[in-house]
Amino acid sequence: MNAKLLAISTIARSIGITVVAAIALGAGATAGAQNMQIAASLLYNATYNYEAGGYADTNIIFGVTPTLHTGLPPSLSLAALPINPPGPQSFLNFSGISNNGLVYAPSTQPGATVDLVAVSNGSIYRFFGPFSGSSAPASPNTTPFATIWNQCGGEEAEVVRANAVVHSNAASPPSESSGCNGPEQPGAMAIDGNGVLYVLSLDGGSIECDGPVVELWAFLPVAITANTPAGYATQPVLIDNNVAGGGTSNCTARDYSNNNVSQASAQAFFPNPFTVADLVVAPSGVAAPLSANDVLVVFGDSNYNYPAPQNVVAVLADYNASNLAAVIKGTASLNTPLVVANSSDIVHWGQTLTGPAPAAGGGPTWVAGPTDQALSAAAWPADSNILLLDEDGNIFKFTWSTTCAVAKATNCSVVNMPVFWPLLPNAQAESNYYGSLQVNSLRTGAQSGNSYAFVAAYTPGEGPGAPGEILALDNSSGANAPQIASTNDGPFSALAVSSPPSGTGSGAQCVTGCNLSGGNQQLITGTPTAIAAVEALGAKGKITETVCIVQQDPRHICNAHAPLPPSNSLYNSKTLPVSAVCPNSHFNPSFGNTIIPDYICGDYGSGGPGTGTGFVLIQGVANGVDGVPDLLIYNDANADAFFDPGQTEPCTSNQPTTVFGWAPWSGSTTEGSIPESPFMTELTYGCGTSRASSSGMSINMLGGKLSLATANEFKANNTSFAEFKYANLFTDVLVAPIDVIQKVRLESIIVRSELFLTRGQTSCAARKIWRADQYVADHASHFHGIPGFDPNSYGRARSRLANLFLTIFSRIEGNVAPQMWPLPTAPGICPGNIDIDPDGY
Question: What is the spatial distance between Cα 70 and Cα 386, in angstroms, rounded to a whole number?
Fold first, then answer.
């Protein structure tokens, strides 16, 4: 037989979602909690210590817990995290970059999904998650944090600086008065998909040149060891020492206008180093000329090159990911960043600054008008388009035309969409500074299929007591008021958000076992020829999984506490369209037109199966892999990874507590349809978590339960349910691309098994289904595929047979469900071995 016997281990816990659990770094958080995670740091603490002559040393970082509400932004609550960097200084660095000196990093610590990286007084720290509220983390580390980079000064910092990597192919080697071969005043940070930590730094300038410069540095991820306790190389790589300011050897600032995609301009773009505001990594799915993992730098409007005329300054500059990787390796020179958007590209973007007339003897020429300083940017999760926050509280949304080339040509068009959010409440221009809301940082996140924006802000005032605020926004452009959480501990500046990510991998990776989205351990098996074809796919074998968490089933037949109409139009529905709980507007690509049938209900809550009515949907886009015939995918699905990682689902009543739903993804040009289409089918084969086999990655449902009493297709008993499955199996085989002789023989085996069932000879029926699976495995070369119709008749037949066996053997007969499939020998007893035909099947 070509099938591999499989006993899949317990699913490794990875990033997922819950609604009400505290964030993983928060006080009292459950280890490995799977919520969207949010943290915010104070610019400084507002309590002034007159004896010490400064602000109190609190260095508070807050955890922000979101609670979702249907059709509204999530409500927020704050709790100070039990983490605190050393030293008497606060998080205050300098204007601009410091406002964004906070970012989540993937965690390797047991029970944690993310760690928190924070800038404080010129140093960069990594705080290890998760925290239980004590001063020490639940991790192998003996301290709750490790230092990634020490501020320039002191013996330890000198050692780090001596090891700094400064490639000769960077813009030009630094010659700094401080001698700091690393970020002198680190601020804005971002981490790309490879775990590289990028840091913007405002440095004092070179010995020869006057004035500050902004540099871009990279810290490479490494294993956590005694020598590298923070998990980053102690040798930062200088990417660019000329982001803004006079960083070149001849002390001239970079002119960005010559590399502007959207327009040719006679005006020079010389950004002010003090208005370099943010750092963002481009997500997958971003439009050209950007690409995934590009590093974007946000500049504010400025009049750095005075006297008049004032320059239109680049708002967004793009460092190409491929070029960055080569620069880090030392195999290429840095390309000049591409100006992918400037202030004239954004409708209503003010190009003038408010301020006094120039002083006698010269100085900046500031013209009266609106102040539209660019402060921060983020990608909107639902469509990967870019959001830009200005200091007036406007959030602009834009992308690029799909026809532009990735080059230094001026042939790209910035597509400016309607204002995403107009003028956050009470945010005003600087002329009305006191008493108005001052915004600082913009970050975005997604949970349960919904995308949200979060803004760090504060209300300035004279003396102590500047309240900080975190605002949660949806995409209603002001129709829904923002949800706000506030504190009087000081003004918020930096903000970090970690969303449960989509999982990406390859078919070759899954041949040895993969867990791309954190909740479904998968193994691709099949014939040797099929496995070789998967391994040969290379980049064409890419698999992307997107997770949608449904916190409660909206159907009253499944949920006694379902919201009532008219707010819940599905209250009286027996079936459930996936698009109703994973809206097409929130996912790109959409989850399609699959419908959850009336006999599958949600069964999950924070305490595991049976404690709620939630469930998980995972969309697997794997067109290359799904087009290979003679594959069989084993799934070990565990909704605990998304609802309550502390639970392990037991196997009760001899059968799985929860079931595995499957359907071809309707958006695929490869997967075709099944007899149940557009309805999902149930494919559970065994016990442990929810074990199932399938013919493709497709649409998977985790955490559901059977509800036979609510079904219309069959009577409310397992025998009728089995007959329903026989009918669909027979139909699927009948139309499948299988050689005629083998098709007829397989159908005869299936019919014989069903006859045993109708006669009450259930053990014989189960054994015959086991023999049918043997037959398919032994005759795999006769089972073919037609893309767009049935690409894998072998996988479809075997997955249905495995599920039908469980239905008869365990649900009807009451035997302990298998933990692997197929069983090595024929199960049970059939008197006289009447289940065996002359050919052995």
Answer: 25
Nearest to 813 by CA among 766, 770, 772, 751: 766
CA–CA dist 208, 692 (Å, integer): 68
Taking the CA atoms of residue 175, residue 177, residue 181 and residue 183 in that order, the dihedral angle to the nearest 10 degrees is -120
Q: What is the DSSP letter of 812?
A: I
Please enumerate in sequence order all residues whose Cβ is within 8 A of that of 213, keeping only pairs 6 or more positions apart, or say none: 202, 203, 205, 206, 241, 242, 243, 244, 245, 246, 247, 273
Quick one: which of 275, 151, 150, 153 has its CA closest to 212? 275
Most confident of 69-78, 420-429, 640-649: 69-78
Model pTM score: 0.61
Element (H, E) at 746: helix 740-758
Instruction: Give the whole-angstrom CA distance, residue 629 versus residue 646.
Output: 38
The four Cα atoms 575, 578, 584, 589 give a dihedral, to 10 degrees, of: -150
Distances (CA, A) of 740 to 644, 737, 746, 801: 49, 9, 10, 19
Q: How would you label 613-649 residue by residue, b for 16+ Cβ within 10 Å and e otherwise? A: bbbbbbbbbbbbbbbbbbbbbbbbbbbbbbbbbebeb
Q: List all residues 6 or more positions away from 212 whose beta carbon is below 8 Å from its beta carbon.
A: 202, 203, 204, 205, 245, 273, 274
Q: SS3 sequence, 126-169?
A: EECCCCCCCCCCCCCCCCCEEEEECCCCCHHHHHHHHCCECCCC
* Reduced DSSP (H G I as helix, E B as strand, rest coil) percent helix, strand, coil of the chain, to 5: 20, 30, 55
Any idea which of 220-224, 344-348, 768-772 has the lowest mean pLDDT? 344-348
For 553-596, how does the pLDDT look when each residue is reduced to its tens digit (9 = 90+)?
Answer: 999 999 998 888 887 889 999 999 998 888 775 576 889 999 99
CA-to-CA distance for 535 and 164, rounded, in angstroms? 40
| Assigned token pair, 592 | 């399609």
Are 587 and 642 in contact, with CB atoms under 8 Å apart?
Answer: no
Structure letter (DSSP) for residue 330: T
- The torsion angle over the Cα atoms of residues 83, 84, 85 and 87, rounded to 10 degrees, is -160
